[in-house]
Design brief:
It is a single chain. The chain is of the alpha/beta class. The protein has a single domain, classed as Uracil-DNA Glycosylase, subunit E, CATH 3.40.470. It has a six-stranded mixed sheet with strand order 1-3-2-4-6-5, with helices on both faces. The chain binds uracil.
Amino acid sequence: MCEERRGVLEAIASEIARCTRCPLHASRTRTVPGEGNPCARVMFVGEAPGFNEDLQGRPFVGAAGNLLNEMLKLAGLSREEVFITNVVKCRPPNNRDPAEEEVEACKPYLFRQLEAVGPEIVVCLGRHSARVFFESSGLKFESIMKVRGEPRRLVVAGRELLCLPTLHPAAALYNPRLRSLLEADFRLLARLLSRGQGLDRWFL
Ligand code: URA
């Protein structure tokens, strides 16, 4: 089953490598489709590749990635057992926010990855990711500070999942207060995972 999913993810990644759906293709060095376990219980969705990710073609490999790795450890997870991707698969110039049309152009790839992996939990890293998940399931999104740390059941791209919005690791890098919120959210993730498989158990 996982091999089949791996094949689907590879096919999506090769489409992304050739993608010209939005202007970001012109300035990218490499596409960053995402990586990880095709049968992951948890999918992490960031915003967009930064400088290092654009060079290496891998998500979260710079300073924010180091903090994400620490947080994964805190939750008892390794990079190998989760799937990590971004809303937008190409770096926006100067790390600016992704534009609405870039998010829209890239969203089908994200949703196909979601369908292929079928995670129980999606951790949205930051407001861009949380907004896509909230709005795609018909919820209004106001701010990441309002929704972070509260898991909620969403139906996104036809899939029922538990969405845990949290801060973007880059926001928490140099701010101890935000870092402790990020840590609290990853500890909560560990508790959710320890309750075992099956969405219904999280809501008893
Ligand atoms: N920030 C993101 O949102 N994604 C990455 O892959 C790296 C930094």
